[in-house]
Amino acid sequence: DTEWGRLGAWLRQAADQHGFDEVLLEFGNENWNPLFRPGGIPDGNRHAAVADRAFRLLREGSGQDPRIRTVINAQFVNPDSARLAGARSRVADLVAVAPYFLYSLDAGTSTAQAVDAAFTEDGRLLEEQAATARSHGKRLAVYEVNFHTTLGDADSPSRNAVVAGAASGPALARRLLQGTLVGTREQAVYTLAGFDSYVHDSKELVRLWGITRDLAAADRLRPTGLALALLNRVAGGPAHSTDCSGAACTALTTVWFGGGSRVAVVSARLGPTDLTVALPCPAGVIRLELLDGSRPARHNEDAADVTIAAEELACTGAGVSFRLPSHSLAVLHT
Fold first, then answer.
1. How many helices (H) and strands (E) does the chain have?
2. Is pLDDT at 39 greater than 90 in this prediction?
3. How open is the CA angle 300-145-81, to the nearest 5 degrees?
4. What local confidence, expressed as pLDDT, does residue 163 receive?
5. Using CA atoms, how far apart are residues 237 and 297, in angstroms rounded to an integer?
6. CA 166, CA 231: separation in Å to the nearest integer?
7. Coil, helix or strand for 239?
8. CA 7 distance to own-chain centroid
9. Given phi > 0 = left and psi -120 to 50 = alpha, else beta, which region is 13?
10. Quick one: pLDDT at residue 4?
11. Which of 131, 142, 217, 251 has the greatest count of CB atoms below 10 A from its CB?
12. Above 80 in pLDDT, residue 54?
């Protein structure tokens, strides 16, 4: 008990020292996961009770500092886990989940088919869990997200073609934007460094989960890392969806940031899409930055073949017009 109180006091002091507006404290690492059983509390009721007791002691030690935000975790693919965590905890501010995607890839799946599958994950479960968290006075957060293509019997080259190829970045961006659209504001991509990982029940390896190819040279980002860099350039401030007209709308995932002054859009279409986006442009130009995923065989594993393309677009009262390639991410900002 004394240690929890001291931790609260230390966090308050550290927030003052470093000028933090917010401190997130998560109780445990995937308590539900048997892999971490020695340090976890898999029973949801006990997890919530122990976390709440710890959080109360911590808040007392911090002097009820409002900057400290408390987090419990739940299993994304098991909706009952998130519901239980949200309902049982009385003290936590956030329920954190890990909405990984493209879990499995089978032998014989072409790269084109695998890429298409990476863009078909919908946001309904995210929306449901965000609504559940809100019903219990909490918000949904994402403690990890990326590809998780470790199941199935595909070989390593087939997996790597989709998880490290050019389209992987826009696919990850699409998942992050889905989270933004349901009200999630804290999303942590897993992970900065990590060259490869074992496939489930196999000695095969897959190029997960690092969003960098390696740390030996500057800017050696995989397409997933480039996508995160692009989103970080426009994210921030109010975020909302947009009105869209045209046949391509169902294949577009779009989020406006900063009250409509910045926008990110991902296309899941096979083929290019001509877009006109209404943005304020007092200087008469808008900057377009593009991560082209239309040629998925390109990657950054041996050389920096996938890069961000940028150009200045003339902006009129009707907005800006540009062509978005298939399976690509574009951000626009002043």
1. 8, 14
2. no
3. 160
4. 98
5. 35
6. 16
7. strand
8. 29
9. alpha
10. 97
11. 142
12. yes
Mean pLDDT of the residues in the chain: 94
Cis peptide before 209 (omega within 30 of 0): yes
- pLDDT higher than threshold 80 for residue 317: no
pLDDT surpassing 80 at residue 318:
no
* Tens of pLDDT, residues 152-173: 999 999 999 999 999 999 999 9
Distances (CA, A) of 232 to 123, 189, 225, 239, 257: 21, 12, 11, 13, 11
Q: Please count the other Cβ atoms lying within 10 Å of the Cβ belonging to residue 129.
A: 24
Q: What is the pTM of this model?
A: 0.95
Residue 198: its H or E element: strand 197-198
pLDDT band, residue 32 (cuts 50/70/90) = confident
- Strands (DSSP E) contained in 238-308 are 239-240, 252-257, 262-267, 273-277, 285-291
271: pLDDT strictly greater than 80: yes
Give the helix, strand, coil percentages of the chain, each rounded to 5. Answer: 30, 20, 45
> Of all helices (H) and strands (E), which one includes residue 142?
strand 139-142
What six digits make up the tokens of 2? 């004394």
| CA–CA separation, 7 and 24 (whole Å) | 13
DSSP conformation class of 101: B
Closest-CA residue to 248 (of 219, 227, 283, 277): 277
Tokens standing for 186?
């804290």
Residue with tokens 């994950």: 121
Q: How far apart are the first and last CA of the chain?
A: 51
Length of the chain as a residue count: 334
Structure tokens at 121: 């994950």
